């Protein structure tokens, strides 16, 4: 059931469009931390620095009729699906043009068939319900749920996996295994493995390492096609969380942070393809800078609650 | 017709008329038909849309929310209402919030049915009236089955409301007849509120949900015969958000089976005080079960749960001193 994509010693060249999207997400998240640092944002946020390639890899595997369920660390999922930094930043800043009027903020976003919510594991049963609808009303559609390794501590995950397997629901669970749940390392929060837990329900498991998007898509494509026919899948991406859990709450040691940085796809890719990165990174940053300036100047969002 | 039969008939009619309606729950398939037989016959007639589930209250409620998000309708049976606590996150943080937290109104057409209440010796985790724990959640409406409200109409109202609803069903009602009121009392319904009354000007108004209505009626009868105290009973179908016209009277009581502390009745009293403080002789009086777990042994359970004698005693004391 488990397959491994080995890390390439020298990363394969990425498509410009894919790399641009990954760099857009990176630039967006860095901008958020910058805005927070300057006291320009309300509340908190959870950036996906280091995990940008996961939703970008999934992009072409999902169609507009598929449902995507995201979580507290969902900016990358949203940007990979809609490429709409304006709407997302306006939502986070509570400005006109906010995707959800500024009510949902960073963690609670709904647009078309995309939905995020801020309670760990909560969306898995909901995705099962949506998948039940799809199976009957729109065969071939699927519900994709992004969760982290820490979410496997929640009972709702197992209640849902049981039902998903029993009813053969088209649910694809994408696990972003960054090895840390807020401040708790995996060795302290998880017994056994994610693959073992999927196996307990008779659900297939694919372990994905690296960021060779073409290879990842080639490997996952046939498995996702089977999800659409009612064979659910847990796709576990090994990744790194470069930034803090939210704003400034990183208790990792200098060595652990160094390891995360060494595992970061961008540093490794830049070493092999510096010209491409420099060119596209500049564009991504310029776009996000312009968006931030423009959105910050907008009037506050408006909302009528009923 | 008994209340259980009326509920069952209502579910049959709903499933018949709405091909996008699902019923989910533990052990709901025939021949079992649910622990209280409310879903009897449904799975035979609608095998594709009556889904028996694992023991997973949270997931079942989440699945219903997913169906609702997709534009379907869903009715969930929680075997004992106590277990709705296991679905609390899905109700409070997902289903109810989804109605408004995404900036525009998202209709969520789902009902979670909860058999509740004591009097049958099921013990502390199978006898509670957990209504109070669900009061005051934005986007979540609470209803309670009563002998005076047609269940089909109540289900239709809940499913078209566009907000998730919890329907509390007092287990002692299942075997009681619908619409029965003994003379000299009469019953009429206006909006979602049933009014049981005498022609005389009432000395007091009692607000009570359906599950305790018969206990209140027994107290009203004894108060009338023994004390010449005339009471009007209001039985709302929807407990929250609460809204009812309170007939002019100087005393108002709220009766419920919930145990004391943070009750639904306190919410009703607050609203009545806001609207009618100037015409009342005193604060609204709350009558409820003791602040206690619900014991299993019959004699101990009787000491805790509110009954007709307690209702009679409190009302007489407040009015007669």
From TrEMBL, chain A:
**Biological process per Gene Ontology, one example term:** pyruvate decarboxylation to acetyl-CoA
What range(s) does the Dehydrogenase E1 component domain occupy? 22-276
Q: Does the keyword Oxidoreductase apply?
A: yes
Q: Which GO terms describe its molecular function?
A: magnesium ion binding; oxidoreductase activity, acting on the aldehyde or oxo group of donors, disulfide as acceptor
Q: For this UniProt record, give its keywords in alphabetical order, as a comma-separated list.
A: Oxidoreductase, Pyruvate, Thiamine pyrophosphate
Highest rank taxon of the organism: Bacteria
CDD domains (UniProt xref):
TPP_E1_PDC_ADC_BCADC (cd02000)
In Swiss-Prot or TrEMBL terms, this protein is called Pyruvate dehydrogenase E1 component alpha subunit
**InterPro entries noted in UniProt:** DH_E1 (IPR001017), PDH_E1_Alpha_Subunit (IPR050642), THDP-binding (IPR029061)
Cofactor(s) required for function per UniProt:
thiamine diphosphate
Automatic annotation (TrEMBL), chain B:
GO molecular function term, any single one: pyruvate dehydrogenase (acetyl-transferring) activity
Job of this protein: The pyruvate dehydrogenase complex catalyzes the overall conversion of pyruvate to acetyl-CoA and CO2.
Keyword check for Metal-binding, yes or no.
no
Biological process, per Gene Ontology: pyruvate decarboxylation to acetyl-CoA
What is this protein's name? Pyruvate dehydrogenase E1 component subunit beta
Per the database record, which ranges form the Transketolase-like pyrimidine-binding domain? 1-176
Which superkingdom heads the taxonomic lineage of this protein's source?
A: Bacteria
